[in-house]
Design brief:
The complex is a heterodimer of chains A (305) and B (748). Chain A is mostly beta strands and 305 residues long. Chain A is built from four helices and 19 strands. In chain A, strand 1 and strand 2 form a beta hairpin. Chain B has 748 residues and is mainly beta. Chain B folds into three domains: 106 residues, Immunoglobulins (Immunoglobulin-like, Sandwich), CATH 2.60.40; 116 residues, TonB-dependent receptor, plug domain (Ferric Hydroxamate Uptake Protein, Chain A, domain 1, Beta Complex), CATH 2.170.130.10; 476 residues, TonB-dependent receptor, beta-barrel domain (Maltoporin, Chain A), CATH 2.40.170.20. In chain B, the strands form nine sheets. Chain B has a 22-stranded antiparallel beta barrel. Chain B has a five-stranded mixed beta sheet with strand order 9-14-15-12-13. Classes of the chains: A mainly beta (305), B mainly beta (748). At the A-B interface, helix 1, strand 1, strand 2, strand 5 and strand 11 of A face helix 6, strand 39 and strand 40 of B.
Chain lengths: 305, 748
């Protein structure tokens, strides 16, 4: 018998090989990058009782990361006052940063009540849902502060006399301190001091916070410094003689995370699940009330007392 | 100072004069190919009485060196035989007053067909001895490669226990280890990355390699500072008899080679240059972009004498390309290696001395266009002295080495804990091992490696290799090995980003803890039928202090490293059948790789700071098959690979995180920070991978030229094998589609 296959067997072998080739090559190799999950939306926003325009960022988690152009224009986003059942529609508004970086916000133009529970509901045409409930704060915190002074010949390059001011802030019962940021304004620079979350380690944001701002003058000009151990090693604003100093401050509702939120590093704060209050999604939705006041500011040609 | 005592002891023992019985003589020398001058490994050397009775025998080792000890003075028949070569026979008179007689011989290649006996001597890819496999040129030739010349990179990917994550990148994982844990030596000098970006190729082309020892684990004390595997390649010297040249071309690669004697019979050169061309040819003939390019240049000068074999090798290689053709990031890498190696016999001393010294430099960077986001360099100079000394039936190996590493890197934010640094590290090391047979059926090689990187504590690493033949010389051989391994320099890369092979070499990046592994191997190999060889080997590794990325959700693909503990275990089964013109190999590998790492707050998302996961090279099942049949008119080769899917990480999705601390970011103004919402690391599996490659080659002669015409196809059934999934772009990156090719090699 010939050791070689007959032509018929050769043809059969060839046919078999072709079928196998087609079959093996066409095997399903699809994969899904997404976990099967009900967690569908990312929702971030704050509703400021002092404002009449409220903005909510809503993203479908399955939109591409590199091309963040919203894929679904038909999301329904509603704001509900749970105490009286009143429902407000939030309208889409695209925020364009570049061709490939577009985010979709949902906007409600109108006032919201203080000390009230609201809920936002998000629904897509395919039935996916998410919601978040939040309570608006009772009102602005109580604020007390000294005046701020820069003494001596401010055009002189010699060191002058230190001066400063202190601030105390006290939220209303049930509210939390959410904001306390001095802003200094010079003819060319608008800058901020470290915010409350940068230094308020010894403060209880549910009750009271305080700090002290000091101004010293050196050969480079007048530097505004904030005193206290918590500032050791921090980079301070550039030396400048401010024309004005204002203070932004405010309260947040009880849904706002506790003090630990303010002191976490960014990597931890941004971890999903750590500080979220959205059912069926991720993100943080809360309410605030904020205000801005001028810091009493005095420039004296003569030395301070 | 007391910690130097083992090294000092070795040096003192070196001075002890060799003891031969008063009337005994030692016979030694090199066996080389008479046509090329290449040392022949595993040739049989026999000394017999004039009436033909066996006196003693040995087989040649590295460089074709043999040694016969304790032979009585007299006249003997001296015979050297080797597969595919004419047997050399001579008469030797051992009557001198010297303790050692040196006799080096050259044997002529034979045109005789291989018979069954020669086949049995080979064993092919199934010949596995406690993780060690000798890779021969014939093994490399059998793997279909899209060019007329085979490559050791393609061969390694065809054996169990070796995992490649794709056909690009040149990253090989051996039994759970990572690419930077593989020790690759070229003539005794380290090569940081011998594998080209195009995964079929390395700097070790079939035409340039003499032989290679590949240890998938359990390597002996002579190798140190790596914790996974060893590829010890001996490059061949140029032809010492006549000049020759070769040129080959295929759609992937063009090659040129020249060699010849500078001083006939003793001093030769070999020079080779290769340039990939697939980047230029692929758009036309594959209708796809393959934006990968490499070239390499190799030069070897070699001198052989009665008592020495010395060579100097110079290697330069360059790689550039984009693993993902649609990505803007380009990877670049350069290797420079200068390696010198001498094997010496000293009169009146039975030791075989080996001196190696060399320089290795590796530089890689990645970035878009001329802007390099990350770059890293490492430079190493080393000098090693080692010797093999017979003491009766025991063979003692020892060695001393000194090396200095200089390294620098600029990795921006990519690796978190280290950004920009340059420094140097001196390391002194030594080893000692003894091979002996406590009983006739067992061979043991216990040893110890001592490594002292000067800014780290000295490590003492015991090793043991052995084999037992309880069922006689022709029965099954039981092989075993165990040992402790430490590694100072680790290659740090972002394992989450399969599209990047950038590596920064750094010494123990966290808390000065050196990566460590303990290996345990146990296997059996046997020739169960004539031509049919089988080996089965199980292994277990315990790994500690392994720097791995610490996960975060931020989309910049930055990592902070953390130390992982882990283990890998599995079993490799290999079978070869070799008879007449047929060669067949089937291998199956089962393996598990597990890491446990502190992932801090990121782990909280999954319920705990410590995360157990299977890293992306945890390939559970792998089947390889290779068939070669010589029809006479032509030779056909078929290679098939099948492997279960590799792990990858799924996501819940992506968003732009708004930092609302201090009411800082406002959705009405700020974009936010792009964020991945990951599932548990590597908790899903890619689809299975399989690929069939075929080639047909024919050699013929026209005039003074030999031609090798080869045609074939890689991935002949055009399987859409996934390489990786780019999460940021939400698209898959596939491996190569069907790649038909024709190649021609001409040799003068």
């Amino acid at each position: 018998m010939s050791p070689y296959p007959s032509s018929g067997r050769s043809l059969a072998f060839l046919l078999f090989a072709l079928i196998m080739t087609g079959t093996l090559g066409a095997c399903d190799t699809a994969i899904s990058p997404f976990v099967e999950s009900d967690t569908r939306f990312s929702v971030f926003g704050q509703f400021n009782v002092a404002d009449t325009r409220h903005v909510l960022r809503v993203e479908d988690l399955r939109d591409s990361l590199s091309s963040r152009v919203p894929q679904d224009p038909k999301l329904t986003v509603e704001l509900t006052n749970t105490s009286n059942g009143e429902v407000f529609s939030m309208e889409p508004e695209d925020l364009v940063f570049s061709e490939q970086r577009v985010v979709r916000n949902f906007v409600f133009d109108g006032s919201i009540d203080s000390s009230t529970v609201y809920r936002v509901d998000i629904q897509s045409p395919d039935g996916a849902r998410a919601s978040a409930e939040f309570t608006t704060p009772k009102g602005l915190p109580t604020l007390s502060m000294d005046s701020m002074r820069v003494c001596g010949d401010t055009t002189d390059m010699l060191p002058g006399t230190p001066t400063g001011f202190s601030v105390e802030i006290e939220p209303r019962q049930g509210d939390r301190i959410g904001l306390l940021t001095p802003v200094y304004i010079t003819p060319s620079v608008v800058g901020t001091y470290p915010k409350l979350n940068d230094f308020a380690a010894d403060n209880d944001i549910d009750k009271q916070a305080s700090y002290f701002v000091d101004a010293t003058r050196d050969l480079q000009g007048v530097a505004l410094e904030i005193l206290g151990d918590a500032f050791q090693g921090q980079e301070l604003p550039p030396p400048a003689i401010p024309n004005d100093v204002i203070l932004r401050y405010g309260s947040v509702g009880p849904d706002f995370p506790g003090a630990e939120f303010l002191f976490e590093d960014f990597e931890s704060v941004s971890l999903p699940g750590n500080y979220d209050n959205v059912d069926g999604g991720l993100g943080l939705v809360f309410a605030s009330v904020t205000n801005t006041v001028d810091v009493p500011y005095e420039r004296r040609e003569q030395e301070c007392d | 100072m007391s910690s130097f005592s083992p090294i000092l002891a070795v040096m003192v023992l070196l001075l002890v004069p060799t003891v031969q019985a008063q009337d005994a003589v030692g016979l030694r020398g090199f066996v080389t190919n008479a046509e090329t001058g290449t040392g022949l490994v595993d040739a049989n050397v026999v000394l017999a009485t004039l009436d033909g009775s066996l006196v003693t025998a040995a087989s040649t080792g590295e460089d074709g060196f043999y040694r016969l000890e304790d032979v009585g003075r007299g006249t003997y028949l001296f015979r050297v035989s080797f597969v595919g070569y004419q047997t050399y026979t001579d008469t030797v008179r051992l009557e001198t007053s010297d303790s050692y007689v040196t006799k080096s011989v050259q044997i002529e290649p034979s045109a005789q067909e291989l018979d069954e006996i020669t086949v049995e001597a080979e064993g092919g890819s199934a010949k596995l001895e406690a993780g060690k496999q000798r890779v021969r040129v014939a093994d490399i030739e059998r793997i279909p490669t899209p060019s007329p010349t085979g490559d050791i990179a393609s061969y390694l990917q065809s054996i169990p226990g070796v995992v490649s994550v794709g056909d690009r990148g040149g990253q090989l994982f051996v039994r759970g280890g990572t690419p930077s844990q593989n020790l690759v030596l070229m003539d005794g000098t380290l090569v940081y990355n011998p594998f080209h970006l195009i995964g079929f190729y390395s700097i070790f082309s079939e035409d340039m390699v003499s032989s290679a020892d590949f240890y998938a684990g359990g390597f002996g004390a002579e190798y140190s500072d790596r914790i996974s595997s060893v590829l010890d390649v001996t490059m061949r010297p140029g032809n010492k008899k006549k000049f020759g040249a070769a040129a080959s071309a295929s759609p992937f690669l063009v090659e040129l080679r020249a060699e010849g004697p500078l001083v006939e019979d003793s001093f030769s050169f070999l020079v080779s240059a290769r340039q990939s061309v697939v980047e230029e040819t692929a758009p036309q003939y594959l209708s796809t972009d393959v934006p990968l390019k490499f070239n390499d240049f190799y030069l070897k000068l070699h001198d052989s004498g009665e008592r020495s074999q010395c060579g100097v090798s110079l290697l330069s290689s360059y790689d550039r390309g984009r693993i993902d053709p649609r990505s803007a990031d380009t990877f670049e890498a350069e290797n420079r290696v200068l390696a010198g190696r001498c094997v010496l016999l000293v009169p009146e001393n039975s030791s075989l001395f080996e001196v190696t010294s060399g320089v290795s430099r590796y530089e890689n960077s990645t970035g878009s266009g001329a802007i390099r986001d990350r770059s890293a360099k490492i430079f190493r100079f080393h000098t090693d002295l080692s010797a093999t000394l017979p003491i009766g039936n025991t063979e003692w190996n020892w060695g001393l080495a000194a090396k200095v590493n200089q390294y620098s890197y600029d990795v921006g934010e990519s690796f978190g804990v280290f950004d920009v640094e340059e420094d140097e590290l001196f390391t002194f090391s030594g080893f000692s091992s003894v091979t002996f047979s406590p009983v006739s059926t067992i061979d043991l090689t216990p040893g110890v490696a001592i490594v002292w990187p000067t800014t780290y504590p000295m490590s003492i690493e015991p090793r043991l290799r052995g084999q037992a033949r309880f069922f006689g010389e022709n029965g099954p051989t039981i092989n075993f090995a165990t040992g402790l391994y430490q590694q100072t320099f680790e290659g740090i890369s972002d394992e989450r980003d399969a599209g990047s092979v950038f590596t920064a070499w750094v010494p123990a990046p966290i808390d000065d803890k050196r990566a460590q592994s303990i290996h345990a191997l146990l296997g059996v190999s046997d020739q169960v039928l004539p031509g049919l060889n089988v080996s089965v080997e199980g292994y277990h590794r315990w790994i500690s202090n392994l720097p791995v990325p610490k996960w975060s959700t931020l989309s910049r693909f930055t990592t902070v490293t953390t130390l992982a503990e882990g283990r890998s275990f599995g079993v490799d089964v290999r079978t070869t059948y070799e008879r007449g013109d047929f060669y067949g190999f089937v291998g199956y590998g089962f393996g598990v790789v597990e890491y446990e790492a502190q992932q801090g707050d990121f782990g909280d998302w999954f319920g705990g700071g410590f995360q157990e996961y299977n890293p992306p090279h945890d390939q559970r099942h792998r089947v390889n098959a290779t068939v070669e049949y010589d029809f006479g008119l032509a030779k056909a080769n078929i290679g098939w690979q099948f492997s279960s899917g590799l792990p990858y990480t799924q996501v819940y999705g992506f968003d732009s995180f708004i930092d609302q601390r201090g009411l800082e970011q406002d959705p009405s103004e700020d974009f936010g920070s792009p964020r991945f919402i990951f599932d548990r690391p590597y908790d899903a599996r890619l689809p299975v991978y399989h690929r069939l490659d075929v080639s047909v080659s024919r050699t013929f002669t026209l005039g003074a030229a030999d031609f090798d015409l080869q045609g074939g196809a890689i991935n002949i059934y055009d399987r859409s094998n996934i390489f990786y999934f780019d999460l940021a772009e939400l698209r898959r990156v596939n491996q190569l589609p069907v790649v038909p090719y024709v190649g021609l090699k001409v040799e003068l």
